[in-house]
Model the fold of this input.
Amino acid sequence: MKKFAFLALLFIIYYIAGMYESPALMVVFLTQFLLMAVMLILALYLRSHLTACFENKLVWAEKDKPFMWRLRTENSGRLPVSRFVMKIKISQEGSGQEKNRKVRGSCECGLDSAAFEESAGHCGLMKFQAVSLKAFDYLSLFSGSRRVKDTMEVAVFPGRLDMKIDTASVCEENEEQDQQNASIQGSDHGEIRQIREYREGDPVRHIHWNQTARTGRLWVKEYEREAKGSVRLFLDPCGEQMSDPDGADGFYTLLCALLSGMLRTVPVVHVFWKERGKPRISTMEIKEEAQCRDLLFTLYHAETEGCGKDGIPLGAMLLTGDLAWYEGERLIFQFSKQKLAEETAQRTFRL
Done:
């Protein structure tokens, strides 16, 4: 718009100078015409020396709260850039929506960094993809544009919900099961504690074949047992609600609330889930609340599939994508995404 106004003014000056045969106005016209040419060359010069990229390739954010991200610019020329515009496409996995955003700034010579603010309405992964970068001349009459290929990932986590969980009974059941497993030497699957000679009743699959071949006697691997008082939680993030961004928000929010509530009374929670295309069930050990975000970040990238209640061991718990919480076959509680905050805060769940 500014460029067209400048051209209109230039035409008017030329018309008046020609009508009244005014040398002074003709000088003004030529000066303005030369200025436009200089600004065009300047815009192309600034564009050729300006580059921009995301300073951080991964940013952590919280749902419904603004977060900051930074854009790093480099001006290799000798003139500062008074104005640039970068076009960015922002999309979130699962929502199917994409929006364009233009960020504006300036850049001195050399390296520079600028901070921008954004907010996320749903949990999951957001993708920022840079599309183009424009550098303007000092009068903003012309701009030089170039394509930019750079991406940034934003992991959006749910807000915190307080949840009161009494895990006394489930811990006792797990301890009894641990004691039964302990009677069978080497039956646990964890870190190798030691290598010892074979005893009658040891599983054949735990035989240390290399050591056996070297010594001519049978040796077995003995594993560390799981910590007493641990809780096993299986995830089944499938169902109609998970296809809806609000439903996925409810699942991730409830998962964090469950883990936080359990960790107040047990030292560790073992979380299990099934990934499509992998023969074994994935697992992660959660010992503190900070690890909840590591778990969610892993789930955001995983292509999960349902494991079903039939595949859940006795005494383990299950959380489904429809916000149903089970202990074995028993339904502990059926949550709803609309009243999730009230349902978690107004009662104590005894297991």
Observations:
- Residues 50-157 form a domain with the Immunoglobulin-like fold (CATH 2.60.40.10).
- The radius of gyration is 32 Å.
